[in-house]
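help with this record:
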Amino acid sequence: PKSCCAVGCTNRAGKSPVVRFFRIPAEARYGEQRKLWICAIRRKDWVPDQNTWLCSDHFVGGMVSRDKLSPAYVPQIFGHTRSPMKRKLERDLEAYERRAKRRLTYGNSGKGKAAEPSSPALEEHHFADLPLAYEEELQTAGGRCTTADSCSQTDLATHDVDRLEEELQTAGGRCTTADSCSQTDLAAPDVDRLEEENQRLILEHKKIHDTRFEATDCGNLSQSSFEQDNSKVRFYTGLQSYTSLMTVFHLLTQRIKPHHRHCLSLFHQFLLVLMKLRLSSRDQDLSYRFNISQSTACRIFQRWIRVMFCMMKPLIRWPERDELRKTLPIEFRKQFPRCVCIIDCFEVFCERPSDLLARAQTYSHYKSHNTVKFLIGVSPQGVISFISHGWGG
């Protein structure tokens, strides 16, 4: 007797009259769908054969579809599926059925006249479901096939499926694909003209975007104002010169590419991040300075700080003792000739976690706040040579 191959499912043939069984798709004809089914079933080191079945309880709506856009294309209801996900799948199936009904109802002419259904089976099932849901139509069309498994073992089933699909595609001039339904009266020259105009508008928008920040009230933070003023560079960024600033900037922009939707240029995004690190500026303060929203300033900082961590982490290295001795400052040679590292701890404020255990682990009695603590090591030359992972305050 047929039984369901899903883990934890006890459905068998004859146990319930409403439960149907579907054979695992064949590799030759439905290879992609077969792989998706096997992944969804989640059985380790398992290869199904031609006698492997899956019951209808694991499919949305209790039926299988051959359409990739249908939620019933892959089994998605199992013991580990949560109730909100099941409700979402049911809504997705309803939306898919409405779209399929519109495709079957309206023709290519676009006049909006409803077409009469060619047969009861075509009105009840989607054309994409025919390979697995054509039993009732075949029973009324000649009584040659009564069950899904017997249909899959005869040549008559394949013939009838092809006939039904051809009938659905040709009867009444109905539309069977989304592409044919979405055709317009635009000619090729019109499409080319619209593409050219679109590219022109994109370039114009980019040019306006590049010059927009210079015209704001915060124009004193323009890139040109930093070129001849190293003291301004040191104050806002902590770097010693404009040359050092641009060296780091060009290093990081290898991973960050500009986009026409960005509110700020890459330089001003980089400047925003350095100002937050150097001056401990709040996001609201930065939003006023750069004429952007507070949420945008937060997203820019998070994006750049990840790239800075990946690109600049190799710069933090523990130097060899001989290297330290050769470049040891004069004062250290007199007072601390054997010094190789100066260690210290510092704390960074963080938001109060909602989890009680994490809240207790990060609370600092010294700061009376939730903090993250780091151990830092600095060489006598002033270079950071070690930074630890974050620990609770």
About this structure: The chain has a mean pLDDT of 78. The two ends are 63 Å apart (CA to CA).
